[in-house]
Amino acid sequence: EGRINESDMVTVSENSWSQNPLFNGSSLMWIEPGKDVSIEDLQRGIIISSGNDATVAVAEHLAGSEAVFAEMMNTNAEKLGMVDTYYVNSHGLPHPDHVTTARDLAILAKAMINDHPDQYAIYKEREFTYNNIRQYNRNTLMSEDPTVDGLKTGHTEAAGYCLVASAERRGMRLISVVMGTSSTRARKNETRSLLNYGFRFYETSTVFEPMTELEKPRIWKGQEDYVPVGLLDETVLTLPRGKKKHLVTAVEVNNELVAPLAKGDAVGTVTLSLDGETVFHAPVVALVAVEPGGFFARLWDIILMWIASIFST
User: Fold this and answer.
1) 150 - beta bridge partners?
2) Domains along the sequence of the chain with CATH
3) Under 8 Å CB-to-CB from 243, ≥6 apart: which residues?
4) Residues whose CB is less than 8 angstroms from the CB of residue 235 and which lie 6 or more positions away in sequence, other chains included
5) Measured between alpha carbons, how far is 84 from 137 in angstroms, rounded to an integer?
6) Model confidence over 177-213: pLDDT tens digits?
7) In this structure, which long-range contacts are made by residues 249-256, counting pairs with CB atoms below 8 Å and at least 24 apart in sequence?
8) Residue 88: CB partners within 8 Å, gap ≥ 6?
């Protein structure tokens, strides 16, 4: 939201000090209390070094306290649709109320990739040096598969070895999430298997071109009697291979569209389903503007609408 810059300096507190007993045995950036560290370095300390100390430093800088920052995280998670996630801290170390799911982590990863491409580029950096300590990216799958460019590893005794990864092949990007594996090797192998499966058995293709007309319903009191409605933008979906032709389209348009109507005004919804499951849902909008008609045209439409209302009741 433009509230911080990479060059901003953060003063390390006792809470975010690497020697905080809370962090014993966990991954760290090795920051020291009283020292100033740039946001840019802290970002890399979190992403590459998995520094739990760095997460607290950023949380306190942004929100004043880690508890307030956790509430900010929860607010953002709710906006993203992460319905099974609740944050208590910034670092993810075990707490009985600190929970998430594989699906919610995939939603978060998608938001990072789509909404913050500059920050996402950091995830594929192989190493980071701070205070003369060089640490290597724990996502070792990136060194074995050049199509993998993120995202994040994690490990606690309670959660096991976890990895949220993303790869792009032939113009299609997939996100995988593995949780609770027994070792770094296991999480890497399970992730590789998931990604290979996804790229083999799924495909990404255009379902609707930009400005696709789905229906042309009646509009009242306008210079035109009918208005094309549909989707302004291209619609791209990732589906099981060969299943695109089995998509079922259902369009619902609001009753009694009345001019004036601007291009892009929502007038209904479109739903795509596959084997009974909804795979896409979006507003249907007016593809052109419709200006009000003349006085007599509008008067005539009022009469017709009144007659139609009588028969509909």
Assistant:
1) 166
2) 209-312 (2.60.410.10)
3) 274
4) 206, 207, 208, 212, 280, 282
5) 28
6) 999 999 999 999 999 999 999 999 999 999 999 999 9
7) 249/214, 251/214, 251/215, 251/284, 252/284, 253/215, 253/217, 253/229, 253/284, 256/220, 256/305
8) 70, 95, 97, 98
SS3 98: coil
Beta pairing, strands 248-253 & 266-274 = antiparallel
For the stretch 68-81, pLDDT in tens is: 999 999 999 999 99
Which residues, in sequence order, are CB contacts of 48 under 8 Å at separation 6+? 122, 125, 127, 128, 135, 136, 137
- Indicate the angle between helix axes 39-47 and 52-63, nearest 10 degrees: 140
Q: Are 235 and 211 in contact (CB under 8 A)?
A: no
Q: Map tokens 């009918």 to a residue.
A: 226
Residue 5 has pLDDT above 90, yes or no: no
| Contact call for residues 292 and 269 (beta carbons, < 8 A) | no
CA 212 to chain centroid, in Å, comes to 25
